[in-house]
Amino acid sequence: MDSNASRGILSGGMTPVSRPNDSGTGPAVWAWLAVSVLNIVLDRWRPGSLASTLAKYGFFGYSTIWFGLRIRKGIVLRRPHWTRESWLRYARLAAMPVAAVAVVLYFSSFDNNSNALGAPHTATRIFLAVTLTLLLLFGGVGLGTAVDWLVRGEPSQQFTRTRWFQRRTPNLTTQ
Fold first, then answer.
1. Is 136 exposed, middle or buried (0-12, 13-18, 19+ CB in 10 A)?
2. Distance CA 81, CA 118 (A)
3. What is the pLDDT of residues 16-39, one digit of tens each?
4. For residues 106 and 3, which has the higher predicted lDDT (pLDDT)?
């Protein structure tokens, strides 16, 4: 195998080499599902027990490590191929769900018994609850999708997910 083939390009026609499709439903996903169900079951049946505490920390630890490894896999796949502009477009995309979760965490730090977010059972409080729920859904699903886009697909293709992430140049005319 020559150097071009080892970088992921066939030497004859400069065609990208196909790699196994990462469907995202491998054994790691099923293990995460098992650990999360175990966490829920033990938390309901034996709250406060040692088994429940171990399941909770196991769930958080496994989820964090698995998510971090998926991010690392995507970065390692794309690092040799993506340009600076591709990385910036991807960072802008991934920043939106992170900002949504940060807003939800900020508002969840308020005391629910105070009137800082409106009096209980008012339209303001209900609107805020619905908005924060939607932001949390957008943040969770959006961040998962952004990491999935990083891991799947052909690594040599630049990130051009949507046209609204393209930087616009000012229209300067000299007269």
1. middle
2. 50
3. 445 555 555 577 778 888 888 988
4. 106
Identify whether 13 is part of a domain: no
> What's the residue count for the chain?
175
Q: Are residues 142 and 129 in the same domain?
A: yes
Owning domain of residue 51? 21-79
φ/ψ region of 133 (left if φ > 0, alpha if ψ in -120 to 50, else beta) reads alpha
User: Token pair of 119, please?
Assistant: 């009096």
- 99 and 126 in a single domain? The answer is yes
Closest CA to 151 of 67, 27, 64, 32: 67
Q: Are 74 and 151 in contact (CB under 8 A)?
A: yes
Task: Report the predicted TM-score, pTM, of the whole model to 2 decimal places.
Answer: 0.64
Considering only CA atoms, which of 27, 143, 136, 47 is closest in space to residue 95? 143
pLDDT, one tens digit per residue, over 130-148 is 999 999 999 989 988 888 8
Quick one: 109 exposed, middle or buried, by C-beta within 10 A (0-12, 13-18, 19+)? exposed
